[in-house]
Amino acid sequence: MSTDLATETARTAPQARTGMSRRTIGNVVLGVVLLTVPLWLPLVGGYTDLASRVLIYALAAMGLNLLLGFTGGLSFGHAAYFGLGAYGVGLMLKYETHSLFLALGVGTLVGGLAATLLGPIAVRRRGIYFSMITIAIGQMFYFIAIRWNTLTGGYDGLSGFARPKFAGPGHLLSMGPTGMYYLVLAAFAIAALLLWIVLNAPLGHAFVAIRENHKRLTFLGVSTQRYIAISFAISGFIAALAGGLNALLDGFASPNLLNYSMSGDFLIIAVLGGMRNFYGPLAGAVIFVLVRDYVSSVTDNWMSVIGLVFVVSVIFFPMGVLGFFNRKSGS
C-alpha cells in the first residue's frame, strides 16, 4: 500500500507543480496587464475611467461571488451595501472631511457593518426564502434613500462632493483619471489578496463545504448559519468598498445604486465570468462593462443585448467563460 501511495504521489506531483506554475504565470501576466492599462487602453479606443469601472464592478461581484459561488447563498440585495458605501463616502466628503482615505474607510465600514448586522437575519432561511429576505433588506435601504431627501438628495441623488487632492511633496496632486485608476487597482488588489487568503484558509474550506453539502455539516453539529453569516459580512464589506470607489469615480451617489436591479447586474457579472472561479467576476465585468459601454453608444436598448449575451452564456458556458476555458485546458 505504501508503494502504491508513493507511486501515486510521484505521478501527481508534476501535475500539481504544472498547475501552480500556470497560475503563477497567469497572475503575473494579469498583474502586468492591469498595471499598464493607462498606457495601452487609449491605443485600442478605450479610456481610463472605463477600466476603473470594470475593476469596481469586478470587486463588487467578487464580494457577491464569495457568498454565491463559494458558499452557495443567492443574494439579490448586495447592491444595498454597494450603495451604502457610496453614500457613506459622499456624505463624509460633503459634510465632514476632505480626506479620501477616511471617507473611503467610513463608507466601507457603513456598508460592511450593515451586512454584518443584517446577515444573521437573512441566513435564518435558505434557498428562495434567503433570496427574498435579501431583496427586502435591499429595497428597504433604497426607499430610505429616496424618502430621506434632506440627507441623501432623494430621487436626485447626492452630489456636491469631488475627489480630494493628495498632499504631494510641496503641493497638492490632482486625482485625475489615471490616479483614480491606480487607487481602484490598489483597492482591488488588496481585497483580492485578502479574499484569496480567506478562501485558502480553513474558513474558506468551510464555506465550500456548506455549498457542497449543507445538510451533512448540520448533522455533524457545525453551525452553518454562523459561517454563512461570516461570508455574508465579508462580502458586504467588499461590496461597500466597491461602492465607495464608485462614488469617488462619479462624484455622485444615486438611489439606483441601492436598487435590486444593480444586484442583478452583479449577479450577471458573476455568472458570466464563472461563479466558482476566483477571477470569474473580473472576466464577467470586462464583458458586461464593455458591451454596455459600446451598445449604449448605439442604442438605448442596451439591456436587451446584455440579456442576450447572458442567455447565450448560460446555454453554452454554464460554468462561465473562465470555467469553460479552464475545463478545456484541463482536458
Automatic annotation (TrEMBL):
> Where found?
Cell membrane
Q: Return the protein name.
A: Amino acid/amide ABC transporter membrane protein 2, HAAT family
Chief localisation class: membrane
- Transmembrane stretches, by residue range? 24-43, 55-80, 100-121, 128-148, 180-207, 227-246, 266-290, 302-325
As for membrane topology, the entry says:
Multi-pass membrane protein
One GO cellular component term: plasma membrane
- According to the entry, what is the taxonomic lineage of the organism? Bacteria, Pseudomonadati, Pseudomonadota, Alphaproteobacteria, Acetobacterales
Keywords, A to Z? Cell membrane, Membrane, Transmembrane, Transmembrane helix
UniProt source species: Acidiphilium rubrum
Q: Which GO terms describe its molecular function?
A: branched-chain amino acid transmembrane transporter activity
